């Protein structure tokens, strides 16, 4: 415990993060390198691979752990050929074994195959990314209400660039190995449904290589901005989730705000994904109220995600255990950006109690935060630094937060991925094993989504 505390304190100081910034969703990002000139990072060009049936040789796959004194000390791997057909992995073969010599073959160059990653909390519809560099000169003491007023002025300026910049953000996160995302999309009187329409247009163009759910997000307050009619319109227009925002600090009526959010979800048979930044007792009350609502409403079981959930950091271990047990029973999900400030989120404890925990980028270079790398492997690395003893097995397990709990090896060291009939969605990484990839945030060389290479290159 003391080791993790010291590590958190160091990361907090080096990242210059403070708990107050959590209100604006900016505690979770840390930039390891600045990008000069423009906000758009350089994304490597992608070669064309249009074949629907092919072999991929020299793929490094994990096969098990070697143990010392009862603990995993090393990860075994071997090179194999993966046969891919119509978006599926149809066979794992001895390396360079090609039963059908007429099929094309490609060479992964010995790179490690890991499951494709999932950026499950991002805002594709509003960003500076792809345009000129801009940092945010936000005065000390800026409140959430101040930020809402700022956004009301800025959104019309950003909207003409929504599609172009969303495309660039998708390029970025694909280059980091993610092919699945959940994007929050502003739904409020200033934007109307325009951001949703723009984002849907982009996702329609990118659907062959990118799956993305949309959360209708009342950024200016569901009640405060009188956005319920627009939210209902968004549900009819195809949004997948009903969003919400700080029901006490923003809407000023916790129960009414949450009841309205849940009622919309029930009326349209949708899920819920709420931004909950509140760290005061009101935040704990909101979490408890949402858990109680799901417990009393069977139709909501498995349909609630609480994003950020910073209030959980204010609870003691026993309180977290009790609440986590109830959350797991109702299949409630936590979406965390793995904050590195003074907040200590009980993410490991939640996972141990069976709560599904996922991660995401949140903002990418926008008016809320200048950070955000779009890299889920970086999030797994932060999780490992903050919450685990970094041995081989624990490091490999930390990858789960980036992949939706899909791992090459199970806890016993048995290979469980990939297997025949799995989607051919994966990333090739310049690493010897999952543990190294997490610890070193290893370079990615190619990203595949359902058999289609969406970024990078392999050898011909």
UniProtKB/TrEMBL annotation:
Amidohydrolase domain sequence ranges: 161-435
EC id: 3.5.4.42
Signal sequence segment: 1-33
Keywords assigned: Hydrolase, Signal
Enzyme class of the recorded protein, top EC level: hydrolase
Lineage top rank: taxon: Bacteria
Annotated GO MF terms: hydrolase activity, acting on carbon-nitrogen (but not peptide) bonds, in cyclic amidines; N-isopropylammelide isopropylaminohydrolase activity
Cross-referenced CDD domains: Bact_CD
Protein name, UniProt field: Cytosine/adenosine deaminase-related metal-dependent hydrolase
Organism this protein belongs to: Yokenella regensburgei
């Amino acid at each position: 415990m003391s080791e993790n505390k010291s590590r958190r304190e160091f990361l907090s100081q080096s990242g210059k993060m403070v708990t107050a910034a959590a209100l604006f969703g900016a505690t979770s990002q840390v930039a390891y390198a600045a990008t000069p000139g423009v906000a758009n990072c350089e994304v490597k060009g992608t070669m064309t691979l249009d074949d629907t049936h092919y072999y991929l040789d020299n793929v490094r796959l994990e096969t098990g752990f070697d143990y010392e004194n009862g603990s995993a000390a090393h990860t075994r791997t071997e090179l194999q050929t993966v046969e891919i057909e119509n978006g599926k992995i149809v066979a794992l073969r001895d390396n360079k074994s090609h039963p059908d010599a007429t099929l094309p073959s490609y060479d992964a160059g010995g790179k490690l195959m890991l499951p494709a990653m999932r950026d499950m909390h991002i805002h594709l519809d509003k960003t500076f990314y792809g345009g000129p560099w801009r940092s945010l000169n936000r005065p000390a003491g800026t409140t959430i209400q101040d930020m809402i007023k700022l956004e009301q002025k800025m959104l019309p300026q950003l909207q003409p660039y929504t599609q172009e910049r969303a495309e660039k953000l998708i390029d970025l996160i694909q280059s980091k190995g993610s092919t699945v995302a959940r994007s929050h999309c502003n739904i409020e009187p200033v934007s109307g449904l325009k951001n949703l329409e723009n984002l849907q247009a982009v996702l329609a163009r990118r659907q062959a290589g990118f799956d993305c759910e949309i959360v209708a997000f009342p950024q200016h307050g569901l009640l405060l901005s009188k956005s319920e009619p627009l939210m209902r319109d968004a549900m009819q227009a195809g949004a997948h989730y009903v969003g919400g925002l700080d029901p006490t600090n923003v809407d000023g009526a916790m129960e009414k705000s949450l009841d309205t959010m849940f009622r919309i979800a029930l009326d349209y048979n949708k899920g819920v994904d709420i931004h909950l930044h509140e760290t005061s007792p009101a935040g704990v009350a909101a979490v408890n109220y949402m858990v109680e609502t799901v417990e009393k409403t069977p139709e909501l079981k498995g349909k609630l995600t609480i994003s950020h959930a910073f209030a959980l950091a204010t609870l003691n271990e026993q309180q977290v255990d009790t609440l986590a047990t109830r959350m797991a029973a109702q299949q409630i999900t936590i979406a965390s950006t793995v904050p590195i400030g003074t907040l200590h989120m009980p993410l490991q404890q939640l996972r141990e109690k069976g709560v599904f925990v996922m991660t995401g980028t949140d903002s990418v270079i926008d008016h809320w935060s200048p950070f955000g790398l779009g890299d889920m492997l970086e999030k797994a690395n932060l999780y490992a630094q903050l919450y685990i003893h970094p041995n081989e097995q624990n490091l490999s397990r930390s990858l789960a937060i980036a992949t939706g709990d899909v791992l090459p090896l199970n806890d016993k060291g048995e290979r469980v991925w990939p297997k025949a009939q799995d989607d051919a969605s994966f990333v090739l990484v310049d690493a010897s094993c999952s543990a190294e990839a997490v610890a070193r945030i290893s370079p990615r060389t190619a990203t595949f989504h359902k058999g289609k290479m969406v970024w990078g290159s392999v050898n011909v």
